Amino acid sequence: MADDIRFSGLEDVQAPIERAHGLPNSHYTDPATIAVENRAVLETTWAGLAVGADVPAVGDAKPITLLGQPLLLLRDDNGQVRVFQNICRHRGMILVSEPRKIEGAIRCPYHSWCYAKDGRLVATPHVGGPGQNAHPGIDRATLGLVEVRSHIWRDVVFVNLSGDAAPFEEIHADLIQRWAEFEQPMYHGGADSTFQLEVATNWKLAVENYCESYHLPWVHPGLNSYSRLEDHYHIEQPGRYSGQGTYVYRQLKDEAGTTFPDFPGLSAHWDTGAEYVALYPNVLLGVHRDHAYAILLEPVAHDRTREHVHLYYPTETTDPVLRDRNTHQWKDVFIEDIFVVEGMQRGRAAPGFDGGRFSPAMDGPTHCFHAWVASRVAAMAAG
Amino acid sequence: MIAQEKTALDAALLRAHAIDDRAALVELYQRAADLAGGSAAAFYLTHAYIFALELGAAAAPTLRARLVDMGAELPAV
Description:
The complex is a heterodimer. Chain A is 25% helix and 25% strand. By secondary structure, chain A is α+β, with helices and mostly antiparallel strands. The relative contact order of chain B is 0.13. Chain B is an all-alpha fold. Chain B is built from 4 helices and no strands. Chains A and B meet through strand 6 of A and helix 3 and helix 4 of B.
């Protein structure tokens, strides 16, 4: 299919919301279109890959595949989280196949070339012949693991696969500033504070649903009792992030009325305020006075997404019963969203669907995301 | 006697490989290097060194130094 046909209709997506259409079907159903889109919105930006809590201790290593690329998340001897291509510089063999602890060096299982945890190539057994472990043609200094550009914010490990995006702090200065009060230590709740959801949808539909509050009274009726539609506001930062906020966040309490401790020093806005933001492309964040969460949307296939959910607290230790209750409360909410994001994915098989029309009053944050995707794809298609 | 020892060492090495006992492999390959002598020693000592390196074992620097002395490995930078 010619690119001018494949990417037609993107102007309509970028039009003002009163006239705009959503992204065409092909952005959800056509692997060729999605391959170009992936380059435009996932490889050349700062995409969420994992969280630091995935590798909590020195030497912890976790292989992760992103857009088919084999990556290795590793915490080095200095405690720094790093991302490498998970392949040996010799024959391209996968180095680490399962999450595990690297005690000393990473040994390739094929010919046993060894790498230090900072990526340096440190041993090349028999490379010069039996019992001869060096060769003038093999310069170890130039054959370390290929490091992927990464940046950690709010424990999320972001990667820039293309290596040429502007610095993360520069691109996302707005949200960093908006949530400056939350720029303080937070602690992953541990094994009971993480879960994954397998969803039969394109990852973008999960973003689109997360952005807007329009669906809340219909899809999450349990929220109606205290969190009404009019208690929410839109958050829109074109080209960067969008989402929603609430004025009526209510803390979780146990039977004795105990709550989680607060993040210290927050302004009064956060007494009952909370915000939920999709940080483009694929990270969904939430902040509250007493906890935060991050959801990483892993694009498994054009119609399959794995949602990795992680909850964080202001203190290292929190009540495990309350924590478990909080995890389940959020899990129930996110599960309630599955039928709509899967339903919209199935709906994209309808020929001639024009991408849909937005509510000018209620869908602004979702349109903001569509317009960002469309502008990046259009720019890439135009070369 | 040496032939018997080599046979026993061979069997021990195969067992250690079968159960992926890397600490044992470090020891056994050192013994194999000592028994072999000559140019074959560097071959076996390399295996001991690599498994020690992977484990982060205390023996790794010493094994490397032995290989460097044999001209089989680059000096540590």
